[in-house]
Amino acid sequence: MQCYVFASRRKADTYVWLRERDGAQALPDELAQLVGELRFVLDIDLSVERQLPREDAATVLANLRERGWHLQLPPGDDAGLTG
Predict the structure, then answer these.
(1) Looking at the chain, which terminus has fewer C-beta neighbours within 10 angstroms, N or C?
(2) CA–CA dist 14, 78 (Å, integer)
C-alpha cells in the first residue's frame, strides 16, 4: 500500500501516516490539534514484510485501512490517542 508520512511541527518525534497524501482531514479533531501543522517527510510503499524502525508494519497497515491514518509517537509517549 502506498502511504505518506508527515512529521508534527508541534510535537517532536511524532509522525502521522496517511493512506492518502491529502488525507489529513481524516484525523480526529483532538489529534489534529495535538500534532498541529504537519510537514511532509516521505511516501513509502508499505507491506507487512517491510521492517520499520519503530512501528509494526502490520499495525500501521491495519490502521491505514480502517481509519485512513496511523499515529507514531515517540517511545514512552502514548498521549491517549493511539486507539
Answers:
(1) C
(2) 11
Give backbone dihedrals phi and psi of 7, rounded to 5 degrees, phi first. Answer: -100, 140
pTM for this prediction:
0.87
- In sequence order, what are the beta bridge partners of 40? 6
Distances (CA, A) of 58 to 9, 12, 13, 35: 26, 24, 21, 23
Residue 34: CATH number of its domain: 3.10.510.20
Digit-coded pLDDT (tens) for 10-42? 999 999 999 999 989 889 999 999 999 999 999
Residue 83 lies in a domain: no
Residues of the domain holding 33: 2-72
Residue 17, classed as helix, strand or coil, is: strand
Looking up cell 493512506 gives 19
Query: Is residue 35, in this structure, part of any structural domain at all?
Result: yes
